Amino acid sequence: MKAIQIVGRKKSGKTSLVVRLLPLLRAHGLRLATVKHSGHPHALDREGSDSWLHRQAGAEATLAVTAAAVSFHFDIPETEDRTQALVERYLGEHDLVLIEGWAGRAGAKIEVVPAGKDGRAKMPRFLDGGELLAVVLAPGLRPSPEDVAPWGELQPAGAWAPAAAGSALTDAAGAKAAPDAGGAKAAPDAGGGGPIGAGPARRSAGAPVPCFLWEDAVAVARFILDRHES
């Protein structure tokens, strides 16, 4: 099983991207699971419900079963490592887990980059460290080469790649960006999702970070599939 985190600033479009990717990935036969991580102490059970009363009385975990669905509630573990161990235990049979958020977790990441107040794409937050596998621009964003030049390793991919766009996008040094960036299957060391609970999946040193347009979800799904199979 592998996991990829969809990260980004608040309201950047993380949930929308996860929802767009799920049917595309499932069409390829993968068994999928998702994790929604929030740093806020939201109550996930209704105070006064039977399952809530069970936990208040001392149950560490409660399974609520109806004719339509099953709900599993735990008290929050003392450490994030234990939370991650729970995810591994109960989602381990799935082929791929998409984790929305949980930016502090070590692992492969795809970052959704929103527009700033000036209408330009904000600087990605996860370029350093080798965990960022790709960037997806928020709807309507199509930065110029000058806008992305400070991002260093980022490279247009999918429909935004020079061959597809029919334009001569260049990198900071003035050289044309590789037309197949993000389209070809990655080398084995380019970074996969990585098993949950294992060390972080990392991008090879100096490897480009493919950047996809929002409307190019099919290319993003293909990118994920390539790394899942590598």
UniProtKB/TrEMBL annotation:
Lineage: superkingdom: Bacteria
InterPro entries cross-referenced by the UniProt entry: MGD_biosynthesis_adapter (IPR052539), MobB_dom (IPR004435), P-loop_NTPase (IPR027417)
Ranges where the Molybdopterin-guanine dinucleotide biosynthesis protein B (MobB) domain occurs: 4-136
Organism (species): Eiseniibacteriota bacterium
Compositional bias per record (Low complexity), positions renumbered to this chain: 178-189
Pfam families: MobB
Coiled-coil boundaries: none
GO biological process: Mo-molybdopterin cofactor biosynthetic process
UniProt GO MF annotations: GTP binding
Region named Disordered: 178-201
Identification of the protein by name: Molybdopterin-guanine dinucleotide biosynthesis protein B
